[in-house]
Amino acid sequence: MQATNILILILGLGLFAFYLGRGRSLALAKPLGGIRHIHSLPSYYGAHVALWCALPSLLLLGLWMIFDDPLINSIVLKSLAAGGTVTESSGESLLMNKITNLAQGVLPRSGAEPELIAAADLMLRLQVISRWSLTALMMTLSLIGFGWSWSRISSTFRARPRVEKVMEKLLLTCACVAIFTTLGIVLSVLFESIQFFRSVPIDDFVFGLDWSPQTAIREDQVGSSGSFGAVPLFVGTLLISAVAMCIAVPVGLMSAIYLAEYASQSVRGFAKPALEVLAGIPTVVYGFFAALTVAPFLRDLGASFGLSVSSESALAAGGVMGVMIIPFISSLADDVITAVPQSMRDGSLAMGATKSETVRNVIIPAALPGIVGGIMLAVSRAIGETMIVVMAAGMAAKLTANPLDSVTTVTVQIVTLLTGDQEFDSPKTLAAFALGLMLFVVTLMLNIFALQIVKKYREQYD
Asked: Does the first or last residue of the chain, that is N or C, have fewer Cβ atoms within 10 Å of its Cβ?
């Protein structure tokens, strides 16, 4: 049985156990005069039975999924070791890939070595044994957990504290998973970046003005060393993000002020969902719109004024990106402006201030922490955008501050570096991790800056 089917089966058993446990508690409460005569609500008894029925099996499934493939691969490799087929660690990896492809039918068995075919058959047998063993063990654990928790149900059994304690630990586990996932991402990027900086000096990367990461795959190729100056990428990223924010911040903020303070309910009910629709449009659609409509329009408009506008320009990509991130600012700003207490508005108007003065001097400062949070979210979204830049701004790493010229961004180069047949441990490929690390540092600094502003104004208006 596949792991997905086993998971569905265990969840189904847990749901069934919940209704059985709940029904048993109701049956116990009925002769006593109702559920007020038992310690906990019937749903807690059902949840207690469901947790003991499903949770141990789910833990076993997780551990099994982690150690199943390595153990099977180890047994298969040991079966081949006697024949001298495995030579070194790199050969082991290639050999296991070939055996796996033979077992899955990706590679034809005709013409393959008999030892590899036998290893593929052994792998298939071990996988079948593993699946059925897992199914049997999980069913056994579920039945044992169900029987034990079922026998504990009584009118005096403290089901609610036990269930809440388990749920508290589950929430803590989820929080730890999120934290350790983030830590793992940072450490993996940091480790690969250190490998890159062993080949390329960090000052050449951070302060270099030429980006041309074309390294040779073979030693006899021309151009065995590239240029890894990342300044053009940072400038291009900041240029496109600045163009996007020059459009998104005024339009989004003014839209939020109008919808929250001046618009009628009918206008607000139509305009707010219409603005939020922009956030649901795929970025590739924005990229097509920028490349096929906005960029030619800007090129023709610039030609009419005697300006040379590139067919792929930062202005086209940044302008469309600014339209895309308007909802990030308008929706959050509208929510925080609406959440400002009405008493602050009334007090300002009672002092003789006009509507616009109240908005400018009272409401906006009070809502500034939320507005800054929305703007920082939009900035992070603009910095991390890839598809629009690829289609509308190009991939040329130019050191320019002219928005009418073609530029590229950090994220576009990361995608470019990680595609193709380049060796994974080459400076060209490892440069993507160094760019990712720099992008992470910049985003972290922006978040710290936003938190400082939020903390300052929140203390002032609390």
From this structure: C
